[in-house]
Amino acid sequence: MTLPPKIKVFLWRLCHGAIASSLNIHRRGVQCDVYCVNCCDKVESVSHLFLSCPLAKECWFASPLGFFPMLENQESFLDWLWDRLARDSEETLCWIAMVCWTIWQRRNALVFDQKTIPLEDSLSQAARLLKDLKEVNNSSTETTTPSLVLWQPPSGSTIKINSDAAKISDNEWSVGVVARDGMGDLIFIAASKIQAPNDPSLAEALAIRWTMGIAYHNNLMDVAFETDCLVVVNSFHNGSKDASSFDNVVQDCEYLSKTFNSFTLTHVKRDGNNVAHHVAKALHSAETEFWFSNFPSSVLNLVHNDALIPKGAESRDYGEKKGSMK
Ligand SMILES: [Zn+2]
């Protein structure tokens, strides 16, 4: 939960009945007035303080929550709190914590300083605390977002091969393959058509199997395959054991992977796979085609972008791919 540390600690203590209400102190053998300092009407138990005291109700109502705890099947305020912790959204829980904190702060000001803090002041301070914390969290998320969306060159003499499948019709898919070295230079590109039912994951798996065959026949033995289809990557690494068409293709890939000296299959986000996507979308024809030189200028431009754009740069989008599930 996104809460200031002192309020997290307070919430933990509250949930574990470790709040020094007058009744709790009295139970530990300390002689003190056990009546609620707010209303002077009831014994100050935790349930009274946070639930049934008129000042507590006022605080719950005036907060953005706009309700106060109603016990349903719960025996006490703490049971209610545990229930809410289990099922409420983070935003609601943050406010539940802030309201409890506010009730507790106002009570302490009265007990120890004989001071009445206006409810409005307490709640706007709580709102400010939450807002500030949210802003700090948002800005730290923005600066630490990893650049996984971007294509990264392979290390050493490994060849990185990106593949992608794009839907042409209900039973037909185009496949794009792009092989590059550690300098980001093209080794080859390939485009083809495959027959596959309307199943994006199966089409992607078929594209990878086809790509592995090409790599093998071109004697590329240290390879890093990359796809933007997470389903294929997860199935490959977790072992696919069913007899479905998809699992059969993934099992073929597992078998083929052992023929390479070094082999990896990893997932890259769509923007990191955009050259293969472009090849699949733009260059497929009736026949399978290979380019080992004289690469199309549209491909060269995209490859150039991949090599130039530094880590953490703005993510790019080259249009939505229809009929594919990523
Ligand atoms: Zn009271």
UniProtKB/TrEMBL annotation:
SUPFAM superfamilies: Ribonuclease H-like
InterPro entries according to UniProt: RNase_H-like_dom_plant, RNase_H-like_EbsB-rel, RNaseH-like_sf, RNaseH_domain, RNaseH_sf, RVT-Znf
Ranges where the Reverse transcriptase zinc-binding domain occurs: 3-60
Ranges of residues in domain RNase H type-1: 170-281
Any GO MF annotation of the entry: RNA-DNA hybrid ribonuclease activity
Descriptive protein name: Ribonuclease H
